[in-house]
Specification:
The chain is α+β, with helices and mostly antiparallel strands. The chain has one helix spanning 45-66; strands at 22-25, 28-32, 38-42. The chain has a domain at 19-66.
Length: 74
């Protein structure tokens, strides 16, 4: 019995694996943003994760400020 290969079975259609945002060097924790910037060091992975959460909130706030449309009233 032969198995037919589906078009969606092509290796190119498999999404790339996401790497972990957190990493440790010499016992100190860091996180990497999507832009490729590293933040740290932090004492624990929990602390790095908390800082990443804060960073995401900050970036969303900055993005929303850029999207504000100022209306002129006559």
């Amino acid at each position: 019995m032969t198995t037919k290969k589906r078009k969606t079975d092509d290796e190119a259609s498999i999404p790339p694996m996401r790497s972990d945002r957190f990493f440790a060097i010499n016992g100190e924790w860091y996180f990497r943003t999507r832009e490729g910037k590293d933040f740290g060091p932090y004492t624990t992975k929990y602390e790095a994760n908390s800082s990443l959460d804060d960073y995401i909130v900050y970036m969303k706030l900055q993005a929303s400020k850029r999207l504000v449309v100022h209306k002129t009233y006559f």
